[in-house]
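Could you join me in thinking about how sequence relates to backbone shape in a protein? Would you write everything just below, so we can both look at the same thing?
***
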Amino acid sequence: MRKIYLLLLLAILAMPASATVRYVDASRPDNSGNGFTWATAHKYLQNALSAASDGDQIWVARGTYKPTNDPNDRNASFVMKEGVAIYGGFTSGQMNLNDRNSDPAGNGTVLSGDIDSDGIPNGNSLHVVRNDRNYLTTRSILDGFTVAYGNADRTDIDNASGAGIYNYSSNPLIIRCSITSNYSLGSGAGMFNQYSSPHIINCQFSGNQTKSTGFGRGGGLAFYEGSPVIRNSVFIYNLAAASGGAIYMASTGSGTEVSGCQFSDNRSVQNGAGVDKNGGQLLLEKCTFTGNEVQIGQYSSGGGAVLNVGSIQIEKCSFLRNKARIGGALTLIAIPSNANVRIDNCLFYVNSSQVSGGAVYTTGSPTFQNCRFEENNSSYGGAVHNNGGTSYNDRSIPNFVNCTFNKNSANLSFDNSTRGGGVLFSGGVGSPQFINCVLWDNGGANTFDYEAVLGVLATVIHTVLDASVTGYSGGFGGVTYIKVDQSPFAPGTGTRLRPGSPAIDAGLNSANSTATDLAGNQRIINGTIDMGAYEFGSTAGDLAITGVSGVNCEVLSPTARQVTFTPTYAGSDGSPITFGIYNEMLRTQAPG
């Protein structure tokens, strides 16, 4: 897939010999130009769009562009054309595509719905960009723009959704765009998609909001059918009055993918503050969910980071400090009961829920491999609540393979004692399975707890438990678990195994189907798999930045800063260290 996208981007950057470039510059004194040079550029983007045909490119200079000059024409929108690529971020006179500033955070190229110029949303365009049954493909490109201030506030479904971008039976490529400050009564305030499969690459969705508690789904994005691809994008401060603070998906098809994305501080009133997926397919890969929250209230339910109904595959994701009423990070609903749910190589850290499932609430039989659950908290099931009651799936049997559970806690008070299960609270006739796992310091005798009538004891196989754990059953034949009174973890390494740990080379190889551990290292080193999320000996330990010094911020230009600092580390094994920039597109009003 990476090779395919490399070829796609190269194709974008290579101008066909027959292509006509049309120029747009908002600073032109009038609109008399023919658009064939910067000196004769169109003043308004709409004129270039009207003149463009398949294969053309439109180069747009910095400035603010509105879909109409009539402050009362709220129905006016920019409409993309098949095979036409629209590029923002130019300075007038630039003649190479690579010379422009393609970053919308600093290029000042804005598609604005504030047609009445009053700075409030009431009279703004219903849709800033509208692709309604124009059957676009990914040859139709919007690249390097801020799309802002749409307001889809009508009660009919078409004009209640997609204030920023509205796609109906259209599949454009949206790349390097900032979709921000759009408002919809209904779904997809930032972008709405019906029967559409857009590709969304390197974009940011921020401050978008849906307003209806009945059907205001997808503050940033909403999809109804289609097979979208979303990569390397940021979702921050989006709000859904119903479900899906950042993204809502319903009945999405094969090939639907969200990868390399960051979800931070998104909110919803009902479900899925990060992502709410209702049926269909989804691969969720290499994403980070931080500080997302389903707001506790009359209508709130679950999935601080993700609420999923149906099948899903989650790989190499991190869930940090997310909150909800149930399922602080994940709520997994087994409809249908045979839904395929698999979570591999994921981190669940300091997630919390008010009622149940600090990290995960599940009603089905998901499989977790090489996952780390640490310092999650709830009343029922500090890490996981398995609800296999009659309202869902009586035989819910979650499987945990090579998972590490450390310092998870449940705080249910009952008969002057603490109950709830630091690792697991379970109901239903199925027995949750723990294979090749390590459980340490999760409340001792309160590590496992069960519903009085329906709960069936968890089964532990090739698993390390601290000595005070009770309330489980062993597997069949031989020694199936090891109880210890000393931490199996090496000090200062998170939850990596210490030398001499009984979890080393003591697992069951056939239970695990992955090639790498949670750190991305070889899963089996000495012929027999270790217990827990990390293979011993794969690295010297978790790399951590323990401090910084010499922090300096230098102003390079009105839109650029250079930050320098000197870090100190712990856990380095001498390998090269690469730094990444988190939320690099975010704007700030802070000095410096």
Q: What stands out?
A: The chain has three helices and 57 strands. The mean pLDDT is 89.
